[in-house]
Amino acid sequence: MLGEIFYSVTALLLIQAMGCSGHTKYDFKIVYEWKQIEYKFASEEERSAAIANGTFDAGRIQPIDAQYVHDAQTGRERVFITTPRIANGVPAALGIVTDEVRDGNPIIDPYPSWSWHLNPEQCNYHRIVSGFRVWADECNRLWVMDDGYIGSDSTCPPQLLAFDLKTDKLLYKYEVPYEQYQNVSSFIAPTAEIEDFKNKCENTWVYVADSVAPSLLVYSLKQNKSWRIQDKSFEPDPNYNTYTIDGDTFEVADGILTVALTPKQSGNRKLYYHSMSNIKESWVYTRHLKNSNNFRVPYGSPRLFKTYKGRRNQQACIEAIDKHGFVYFSLLIDVQIVKWDPRTEYTNKNFHIIANDKETMQFPSGLKIGPYKGGPREALWVFSTAYQRSASGHLNGNEINFRLFFAKL
Q1: Are 144 and 76 in contact (CB under 8 A)?
Q2: Which UniProt keywords apply (predicted)?
Q3: DSSP character for 286?
């Protein structure tokens, strides 16, 4: 069980942050940590062969996202890890953390099986080429957005997959129409909204951030149809393309990178979002996104998208919203996890720091909130990946680079 391997992080600073209900202590614990990523090969011979032929190069693998899931009926807990094919030498793009360890690194078992990850350039029907982030929904489905890239090459058409988390069988597969990506897109962050649970939860919408185009992909499961949306608020700011974290500097011009839904009980549900290489926060009502007539032409409905007047003082990565409507995200340069009440002005003075360990929490590229063990209480999962090390060519396999944290809210 995952709970058996939790241990406190003595070096992590625990911050008391003021919320609406008073002082709250966020007791983060490390669940897993890696110096480098290891996979569960069938044998030592197979692993050695993968190293020899270049399909497995642990020093080049950069994980991005983590997803915790819990089966209420069986009590089974699992953590999914994405390892997109940003570079060559990545044998599998998605897997589950096992109880096995190699040189101190928890071993990842490719999901749903090795066969889905072999020979990705062949674009087989059952394939996962490269996925940055995944999403587990309330209907026990895992949504995987495969952008189809190997390195900088658009190898296969991007596709949206959904797996049954009870059986690990493929439920849905949707290839994005060519006119909605045209070899310039990098679909990076899916979020699913379930309107009701009728007919096997068919009334589901998936919103996917495209950081390169930049644009937003909206997919209706019921219609089995998608449309692409563009807006100026999705774009990066060239003044914020440079990042320096812990002495490592790199440049990236990422547009919209993250989307997060306000709670269902809020009525007119909103989708919050921001570009990574920018300092603005924006939102749009989901009811507008669900009407494709609003977006017949690119940049056709600027009036629908709202941007807060306030600004951050630095770039931010992924964000998430809890059941009370509070927004959580990371400030990348200062290495902080913060909490913000959207009823207040969007500015650093209203960002309550809940964690700020500059050694262990560098570049949280994965951040999710969900029910803990199926109960009413939520948990915040933070996957710090020190992305700046691989982006600047300074990834060191002799030190801990990737850590998965957990804190009850």
Answers
A1: no
A2: Glycoprotein, Secreted, Signal
A3: H
